[in-house]
């Protein structure tokens, strides 16, 4: 029902209406969610490799005491860029890209709610990332940690443009994250296929929806505080200057009010991936769907009440800290509920094969449990006083973030690569990738718990011998190199399978969500017919979402599938029950998103040189916004049905 | 490894074993209580996480068997019950006990076990520690001497960026040193010994080698150490007298104070106070041992040992630097 | 076929030969939802800014700092009232003409709204021209100037948006299309007015409390 053979005329018309532009214009003006989503993911993977290279350099420098592989300056840039890249340029953008690619497919839509905003978000992300790395290339990379504490990053202690690049480009990046969040929310709430009420929504979409709400409430804190720092540095403001009535702790409060939710912003979508992968491989619906969704919601809300646990050592009264300790520990409960929901799903499931996505999901659960229990420990205030800012923390958050976010991202790549590319990734290379990465990870990071107990602080470019840290640091470096080997296998697998992998067919895993009903890769229009959802697992439910057929559908429903005016029609449904409310016309390719992104680049990047460029960029942005909103037909012109019909 | 490292690094003999900055080798009630809390949490969560991961593996084994026998998929209300009991009830019990333990431990170490008689002020600088004994009018750097068996009141702040004061074996954890604020903590050593501390808040290019030595000594030794710290030794050796002139000529006093010697307008200079330099066992915050050769090399080029340190290299002639070192070695 | 998809249930055309509506407004229009979430982002930012103001205020004894006069209330209050009133004409325009085809209310009403908001701008400019401290003077000055600048920037943004919308409406573009665009403008305008009210309360009332 969904392939081009089902209704060739309809296929040709929809394909032409929804086609991305060709040639160089495709690159500059495409707005289709799959194009943009894929761009996000590929770009994020490039940044992952760069961050991995930085990690290897860091580990080589720390392999033995007093090595001189990296100078202190180079080391400080490397660890700052590693953290900033993994947080801002890899994990969040990759998951956004995954969501932009998958959410419309999963909810049965043809496009995101605001396709041009989508494209704009990608350009902003690309420009910010390239600018940061351009600065790195010339030695101007930020060098005071991904958390960028004042007053070390104030103009007095860190003159020069290194910190300016962090402040402006990270703020710019948040613009990208925020617009992506808004349009994901609106897509999920207004463009779900008829019948997909909220309680039928795939759990991945739930996770993405909750994450997007968290971005809406968390990222403004980072924008505000980096704006304040930019003003302090570039225009002589005093927000963080204790001598003039400001307070350096204001930075820490605002940063962690963003920073802690940000951890869960990276974790929740990843958890949604695992909740999607496990049921498919176990050939059954997810156990405790409602509990899993409510847990994700609880994590999202609780994560805003725990930021102070990054600040236990700044000298607050113990009584106040205990509240945040209790709140931090409370997050364990929803996390545990999810873990046991997965175990229950497997327990009663039928696991015919443990393919690579399942392997990474299982590895994720193991690492997430280990990272979770150290998380409970460091929420205990007295223990945190001792262990804060030591390598124990480094071990903990790598278990949570690599285990909890990167492993599920790999699961997602192995799981959905066939959908995106039409070919499967090689399973044998996939196993090698998993085992090298899993073993290497534990060899690299488990010893860091002990190194932390032995007293080694974080963010040191070297250490003296004789402190009992040497052997375990060397072991950790060996583990990092094994992980790097895993990454080489992974990249090889991606490249080789992209070019010559086994054809996947529309549904290689026997999935339950709507994306598996499209061809691989999906057609320009995603779905030939607007699906009608009758349960939580549309492809496993009966009758199928393609009933009734086009001929027997009522006029208003058939029309949604037919693009009668050669425009990009998309159904609008109600937010909760997904009852059809109307049709929306989605915009065609546009150059304005790129223009707007470049205009704002003049403001953000220009601010580093001179603040006078800020209004120039804003004026250019105004032009872009007028052009963007200029009323136009959004109609495909020059399409002749008869002519096209004659083609084979 | 850098050439100099092997020859001039602090000898390992300085510490009895490798763990002289270890959190699990506590030498004070504060650090011990935290270590105990850790061991309780470790065994509890160790058992629980083993059960969870074991359960996961068993579930995978079961599901593989189901796949062969085409069984399984008996989904029902029991799953929800299992998830709630294992995922909500069990963690709630564990967490409540952890919170109680944590609050008790925290309350017991927030204040020292007795009224401290000695107060020490520690001020963080990029990348060294200013140490003051306000009751005894002593200012030194990077090394703290304390009497054994008595709690010591420690007040910390910073002269520039945020640092963090951490002597894992003696203090109840770390406390940040924040410009414009004074934070309090306490230390107590239950036995004599040398204990290492280190800055734990990234403070710039040379954060890594910003270390601290705490020497715990018996009460009478400590009192003797205090009374030995008298500024202004009489000089009679011409070499030492020449060295004092070099101290003025080379501009050392614009950064370093020597009580009783520095001209009044230079008192409170930004670098480490040198009044008791010769009484310190290390240079550069535990980076190298305080020997004549190391001191000479340090004065000529401190960046060789501690890149990024704020002290510039001093292009002194061999004669001058010899005299200067001879003078500095009289500063007990 | 599930119950809610049958013709006759709310939201679905009763006659199966009808189409679904194309020009949506209110909670049916995705653009309105988009603007609501944009407002939510900015509202979060504003609240955090106001909290930061209170946080820095709590850290010191005297506020404003010694030697700095407390802000006057009369003219700022008048400016604030003008800004609060300014979205009203757009609301009236949306209410008065339900028939999009003959709707000439927007071209008449938008300029009135812009005039009111401009009054706020003029009063702000006059007020800050007279200030005897700058953002570089102290943290109080940094907060005061930056918060006012933020409010002013947003008023300028709605003025520009209003001007563009007015140009569209005089060309008759708005009548043909849905009124969701005008609703979105109204929502944002109301947010700018209320957001600056929050800043007004923070900047002018906290120092005299």
Write a structural description.
The complex is a heterotrimer of chains A (648), B (332) and C (209). Chain A is an all-alpha fold. Chain A has helices at residues 8-18, 23-29, 33-61, 72-107, 115-137, 162-190, 203-235, 248-281, 289-302, 318-330, 332-347, 356-379, 381-387, 391-421, 427-453, 470-500, 555-562, 592-609, 613-629, 641-646; strands at 568-573, 580-586. In chain A, helix 3 (33-61) packs parallel to helix 5 (115-137) and helix 12 (356-379) runs antiparallel to helix 14. The mean pLDDT of chain A is 93. With 332 residues, chain B is of the alpha+beta class. Chain B folds into three domains: 29-110; 118-215, Cupredoxins -  blue copper proteins (Immunoglobulin-like, Sandwich), CATH 2.60.40; 238-328, Sandwich (Immunoglobulin-like). Chain B is built from seven helices and twelve strands. In chain B, a hairpin with a 2-residue loop joins strand 1 and strand 2 (128-133). In chain B, helix 5 packs across helix 7 (318-328) and helix 6 crosses helix 7. Chain C has one domain: Cytochrome c oxidase, subunit III, four-helix bundle (Four Helix Bundle (Hemerythrin (Met), subunit A)), CATH 1.20.120.80. Chain C contains seven helices and no strands. The chains are: A mainly alpha (648), B alpha+beta (332), C mainly alpha (209). Chains in contact: A-B, A-C. The interface between A and B is large, with 94 and 102 residues.
């Amino acid at each position: 029902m969904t392939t081009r053979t089902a209704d060739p005329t309809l296929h040709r018309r929809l394909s032409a209406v929804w086609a991305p532009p060709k040639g160089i214009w495709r690159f500059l003006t495409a707005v289709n969610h799959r194009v943009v989503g894929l761009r996000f993911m590929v770009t994020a993977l490039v940044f992952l490799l760069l961050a991995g290279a930085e990690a290897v350099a860091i580990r080589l420098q720390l392999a033995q005491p007093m090595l001189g592989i990296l100078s202190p300056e180079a080391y400080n840039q490397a660890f700052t860029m590693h953290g900033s890249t993994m947080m801002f340029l890899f994990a969040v953008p990759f998951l956004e890209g995954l969501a932009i690619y998958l959410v419309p497919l999963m909810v049965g839509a043809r496009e995101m709610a605001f396709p041009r905003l989508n494209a704009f978000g990608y350009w902003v992300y690309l420009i910010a990332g390239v600018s940061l790395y351009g600065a790195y290339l010339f030695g101007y990379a930020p060098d005071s940690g991904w958390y960028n504490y004042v007053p070390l990053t104030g103009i007095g202690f860190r003159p020069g443009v290194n910190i300016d690049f962090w402040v402006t480009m990270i703020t710019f990046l948040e613009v990208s994250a925020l617009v992506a969040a808004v349009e994901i929310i609106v897509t999920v709430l207004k463009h779900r296929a008829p019948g997909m009420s909220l309680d039928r929504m795939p759990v991945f979409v739930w996770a993405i929806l909750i994450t997007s709400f968290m971005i809406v409430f968390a990222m403004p804190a980072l924008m505000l505080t980096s704006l304040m720092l930019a003003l302090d540095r570039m225009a002589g403001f005093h927000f963080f200057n204790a001598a003039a009535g400001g307070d350096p702790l204001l930075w820490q409060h605002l940063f962690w009010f963003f920073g802690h939710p940000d951890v869960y912003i990276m974790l929740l979508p990843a958890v949604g991936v695992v909740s999607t992968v496990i049921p498919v491989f176990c050939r059954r619906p997810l156990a405790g769907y409602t509990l899993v969704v409510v847990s994700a919601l609880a994590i999202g809300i609780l994560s805003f009440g725990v930021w102070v646990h990054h600040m236990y050592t700044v000298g607050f009264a113990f009584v106040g800290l205990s509240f945040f300790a209790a709140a931090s520990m409370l997050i364990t409960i929803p996390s545990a509920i999810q873990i046991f929901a997965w175990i229950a799903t497997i327990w009663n499931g039928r696991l015919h094969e443990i393919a690579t996505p399942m392997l990474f999901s299982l590895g994720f659960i193991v690492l997430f449990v280990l990272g979770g229990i150290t998380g409970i420990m460091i929420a205990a205030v007295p223990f945190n006083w001792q262990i804060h800012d030591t390598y124990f923390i480094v071990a903990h958050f790598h278990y949570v973030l690599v285990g909890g976010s990167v492993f599920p991202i790999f699961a997602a790549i192995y799981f959905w690569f066939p959908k995106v590319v039409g070919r499967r990734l090689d399973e044998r290379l996939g196993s090698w990738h998993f085992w090298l990465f899993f073993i290497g990870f534990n060899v690299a990071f488990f010893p860091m718990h002990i190194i932390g107990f032995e007293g080694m602080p974080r963010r040191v470019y070297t250490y003296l011998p004789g402190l009992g840290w040497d052997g375990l640091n060397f072991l950790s470096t060996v583990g990092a190199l094994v992980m790097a080997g895993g990454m080489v296998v992974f990249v090889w697998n991606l490249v080789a399978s992209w070019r010559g992998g086994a054809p996947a067919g529309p549904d290689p895993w026997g999935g339950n969500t709507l994306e598996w009903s499209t061809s691989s890769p999906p057609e320009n229009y995603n779905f030939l017919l607007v699906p009608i959802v009758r349960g939580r697992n549309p492809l496993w439910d009966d009758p199928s979402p393609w009933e009734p057929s086009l001929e027997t559908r009522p006029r208003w429903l058939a029309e949604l599938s037919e693009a009668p005016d050669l425009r990009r029609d998309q159904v609008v449904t109600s937010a909760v029950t997904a009852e059809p409310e109307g049709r929306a016309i989605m915009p065609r390719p546009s150059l304005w998103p790129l223009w707007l992104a470049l205009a704002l680049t003049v403001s953000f990047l220009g601010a580093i040189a001179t603040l006078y460029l800020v209004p120039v960029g804003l004026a250019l942005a105004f032009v872009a916004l007028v052009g963007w909103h200029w009323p136009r037909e959004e109609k495909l012109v020059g399409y002749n049905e008869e002519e096209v019909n004659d083609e084979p | 490894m850098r050439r100099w490292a092997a020859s001039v690094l602090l000898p390992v003999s300085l510490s009895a074993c490798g763990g002289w900055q270890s959190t699990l080798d506590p030498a004070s009630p504060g650090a011990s209580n935290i270590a105990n809390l850790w061991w309780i949490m470790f065994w509890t969560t160790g058992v629980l996480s083993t059960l969870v991961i074991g359960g996961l593996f068993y579930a995978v084994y079961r599901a593989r068997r189901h796949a062969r026998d085409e069984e399984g998929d008996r989904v029902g209300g029991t799953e929800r019950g299992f998830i709630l009991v294992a995922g909500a009830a069990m963690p709630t019990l564990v967490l409540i006990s952890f919170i109680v333990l944590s609050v008790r431990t925290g309350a017991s170490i927030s204040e020292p076990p007795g009224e401290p008689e000695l107060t020490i002020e520690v001020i963080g600088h990029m990348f060294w520690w200013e140490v003051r004994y306000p009751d005894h009018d002593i200012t030194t750097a990077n090394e703290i001497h304390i009497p054994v068996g008595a709690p010591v009141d420690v007040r910390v702040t910073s002269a520039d960026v945020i640092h963090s004061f951490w002597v894992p074996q003696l203090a109840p954890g770390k406390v940040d040193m924040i410009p414009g604020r004074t934070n309090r903590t306490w230390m107590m050593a239950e036995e004599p010994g040398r204990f290492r501390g280190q800055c734990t808040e990234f403070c710039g290019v040379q954060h890594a080698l910003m270390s601290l030595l705490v020497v715990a000594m018996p009460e009478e030794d400590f009192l003797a150490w205090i009374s030995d710290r008298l500024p202004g030794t009489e000089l009679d050796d011409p070499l030492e007298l020449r060295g004092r002139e070099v101290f003025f000529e080379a501009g050392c006093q614009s950064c370093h104070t020597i009580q009783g010697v520095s001209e009044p307008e230079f008192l409170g200079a930004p670098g480490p106070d040198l009044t008791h330099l010769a009484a310190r066992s290390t240079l550069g915050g535990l980076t190298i041992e305080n020997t004549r050769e190391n001191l000479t090399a340090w004065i000529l080029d401190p960046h060789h040992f501690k890149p990024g340190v704020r002290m510039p290299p001093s292009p002194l002639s061999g004669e001058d630097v010899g005299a200067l070192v001879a003078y500095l070695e009289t500063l007990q | 076929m599930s119950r809610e998809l049958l013709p006759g249930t709310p939201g679905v055309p009763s006659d199966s030969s009808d189409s679904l509506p194309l020009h949506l407004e209110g909670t049916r229009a995705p653009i309105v939802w988009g603007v609501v979430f944009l407002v939510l982002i900015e509202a979060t930012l504003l609240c955090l800014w106001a909290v930061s103001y209170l946080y820095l205020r709590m850290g010191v004894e005297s506020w404003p700092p010694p030697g700095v006069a407390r802000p006057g209330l009369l003219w700022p209050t008048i400016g604030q009232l003008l800004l609060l009133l300014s979205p009203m004409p757009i609301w009236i325009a949306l209410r008065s003409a339900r028939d999009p085809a003959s709707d000439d209310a927007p071209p008449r009403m938008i300029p009135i709204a812009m005039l009111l908001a401009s009054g706020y701008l003029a009063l702000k400019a006059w007020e800050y021209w007279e200030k005897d401290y700058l953002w570089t003077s102290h943290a109080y000055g940094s907060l005061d100037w930056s918060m006012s600048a933020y409010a002013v920037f947003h008023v300028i943004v709605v003025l520009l948006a209003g001007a563009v919308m007015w140009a569209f409406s005089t060309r008759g573009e708005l009548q043909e299309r849905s009124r969701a665009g005008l609703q979105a403008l109204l929502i944002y305008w109301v947010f700018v007015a209320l957001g600056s009210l929050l800043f007004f309360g923070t900047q002018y009332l906290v120092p005299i409390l």
